[in-house]
Inverse folding.
């Protein structure tokens, strides 16, 4: 699971992928490349290790993956970057076009808005997003409420406090699930 973290900067706040994820993927990539090099030097054909090449490629993609949001309070802009390494899409949004920061909840796999999460199928999810004046929404993070552990909620509060943008929360954090023997 890819987690985002907030970091206070000198002229704003950023909401980016955790450096721990990048370091783990890069370390795994280097380990696989070392193992492949060592095996090829011993005379093992590369065609017999195709699965290691695929794993190394996926680890490299994970190490180069970037998804960041930078809230610049001096220039009054939000800059979004999504891509791999230096290749990606960068979009800047002025604070004037942002109505508020939203933190909404839903139950994955349920059509009913009042559905209760269960232990197995229906999972409680939390969405951190930006709502613009034109009634458009840009989702910044969608994560299970249990996996978030309150970090998404605190990130929304931190971003709102630093930028001065309004914060809308549809309901408070709900981690206590009524689990009976039937769900086990």
């Amino acid at each position: 699971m890819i987690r985002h973290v907030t970091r206070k900067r000198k002229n704003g706040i950023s909401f980016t992928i955790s450096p721990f994820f990048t370091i783990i993927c890069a370390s795994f990539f280097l380990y696989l490349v070392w193992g492949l090099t060592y095996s090829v030097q011993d005379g093992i054909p590369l065609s017999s290790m195709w699965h290691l090449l695929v794993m190394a490629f996926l680890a490299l993609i994970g190490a180069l993956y970037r998804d960041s949001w930078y809230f610049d309070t001096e220039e009054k802009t939000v800059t979004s970057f999504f891509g791999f390494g230096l290749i990606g899409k960068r979009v800047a949004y002025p604070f004037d076009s942002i109505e508020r920061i939203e933190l909404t909840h839903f139950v994955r796999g349920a059509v009913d808005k009042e559905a209760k999460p269960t232990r197995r199928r229906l999972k409680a999810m939390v969405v951190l997003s930006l709502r613009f004046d034109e009634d458009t929404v840009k989702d910044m993070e969608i994560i299970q409420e249990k996996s978030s552990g309150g970090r998404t909620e605190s990130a929304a509060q931190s971003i709102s406090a630093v930028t001065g943008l309004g914060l809308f929360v549809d309901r408070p954090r709900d981690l206590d699930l009524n689990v009976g023997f039937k769900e086990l």
Summary: The mean pLDDT is 83. The longest strand covers residues 98-108. The first helix runs from residue 19 to 41.
